[in-house]
Amino acid sequence: MELAQVNIARLKAPLTDPQLADFVAALDPVNAIADAAPGFVWRLQTEDGNATAVRAFEDDGPEIIVNMSVWRSVEDLAAFTYSGQHRELLRRRREWFERMREAYTALWWVPDGHRPGTAEAEERIRHLREHGPTPHAFTLKVTFSPESDAPAPGWRCPA
């Protein structure tokens, strides 16, 4: 099994706005770091090399951008998420994105080789919003192993 993840964000301004210039400038370097990270398998992207042009989660608003990827493990995803340049971008997210009151990220296990689509990702976030963390859709703070219906013990999210 591999770990799928999706996160969405509501932009404070159009991607062409100077307010988002630092975020847009960081997309290619951070994506390159992700692509080379231990445990990285796949990420959603267009011919531009990122997913900012992908339209999904329309019920959440037209200014939503989506990021989806697949990793070998929760630990691999967390190591990338909470280190280096990606961590620096996380610290600045309030400059570029509106605060979302509902769940905006979800994780779930997929069979090796499966690449989730945006409809699947949207269903997982909606499930997490309605039911909280379950084996069907969970978070980095409350994870599940592919074999268990109980939250995974022993790993603590640094967030």
TrEMBL record:
Q: Which domain of life is it from?
A: Bacteria
From the broadest rank down, the organism's phylogenetic lineage runs: Bacteria, Bacillati, Actinomycetota, Actinomycetes, Pseudonocardiales
Name of the molecule in the record: DUF3291 domain-containing protein
Q: What's a Pfam family in this record? A: DUF3291
Q: Which residues form the DUF3291 domain?
A: 3-141
